[in-house]
């Protein structure tokens, strides 16, 4: 997810539009009542709130790979369902859930640097200092890595001060209208990434 590529709807029309498009199921899935609110989760029967569409969060650490889990091996932590590819991975998670949790509720880390809890593709990820970060595609990951130290500090700030504990849909709408001071358009980020790539060659 590249939050800067979004075209902003003026005023609070964006808030109303997002609320109308979201649907009750999605809003409920992303906003549990526990400590993990908000989360990048969806409803996948028989589970009401499945993190990362069922990606096995343990596999990133044990196999260095994205693997899909299943409802056959699942655990619930803080009101959120986690699916695993094996009983062994479920057991690892159950022993120490916080160790395997994706940062920023599993949302695109680059989006959180803009205060926007949105996106997050389970197959685009990285582990830094023992922490799992999810991105909304390769372009978002590349944008994050332009200056990882600065982007990490921004994401930590916005997660702690605005996003954590908020309603994902209202927070998203707010930051689509009221952009952060360091906002860059998709075109600006693309130019920066091209310049960085050219400098490495």
Contiguous helical run count: 9
Strand order of the largest sheet: 1-2
Round the Cα radius of gyration to an integer and report it.
17 Å
How is the main sheet built? 2 strands, antiparallel
Global outline:
globular
Q: In percent, how helical is the residue content?
A: 40-55%
Order of helices and strands: HEEHEEHHHEEHHHH
SS-based class: alpha+beta
Report the β-strand fraction as a percent range. Answer: 15-25%
Number of strands: 6
Arithmetic mean of pLDDT:
88
Terminal CA distance: 26 Å
> Uncertain segments of ≥5 residues (pLDDT<50)?
2-23
Walk me through this protein's architecture.
The two termini are 26 Å apart. The protein has helices at 13-30, 59-62, 87-95, 97-100, 109-112, 138-146, 148-163, 168-177, 186-200, and strands at 41-44, 47-51, 70-77, 80-84, 121-128, 131-135. A hairpin with a 2-residue loop joins strand 5 and strand 6 (131-135). It has a two-stranded antiparallel sheet with strand order 1-2. The protein has a two-stranded antiparallel sheet with strand order 3-4. The protein has a two-stranded antiparallel sheet with strand order 5-6. It has 201 residues and is α+β, with helices and mostly antiparallel strands.
């Amino acid at each position: 997810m590249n939050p800067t590529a979004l075209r902003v709807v003026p005023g609070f029309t964006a808030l109303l539009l997002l609320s109308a498009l979201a649907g009750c199921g999605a809003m409920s899935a992303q906003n549990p009542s526990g400590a993990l609110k908000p989360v990048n989760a969806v409803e996948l029967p028989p589970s009401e709130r499945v993190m990362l569409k069922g990606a096995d969060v343990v596999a990133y650490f044990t196999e260095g790979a994205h693997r899909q889990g299943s409802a056959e091996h699942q655990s619930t932590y803080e009101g959120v369902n986690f699916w695993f590819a094996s009983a062994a991975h479920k057991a690892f998670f159950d022993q120490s859930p916080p160790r395997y949790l994706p940062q920023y509720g599993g949302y695109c880390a680059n989006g959180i640097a803009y205060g926007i809890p949105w996106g997050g593709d389970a197959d685009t990820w990285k582990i830094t200092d023992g922490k799992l970060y999810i991105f909304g595609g390769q372009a978002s990951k590349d944008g994050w890595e332009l200056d990882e130290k600065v982007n990490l500090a921004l994401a930590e700030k916005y997660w702690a001060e605005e996003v954590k504990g908020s309603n994902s849909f209202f927070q998203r709408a707010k930051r689509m209208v009221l952009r952060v001071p360091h906002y860059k358009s998709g075109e600006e980020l693309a130019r920066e990434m091209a310049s960085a790539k050219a400098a490495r060659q």
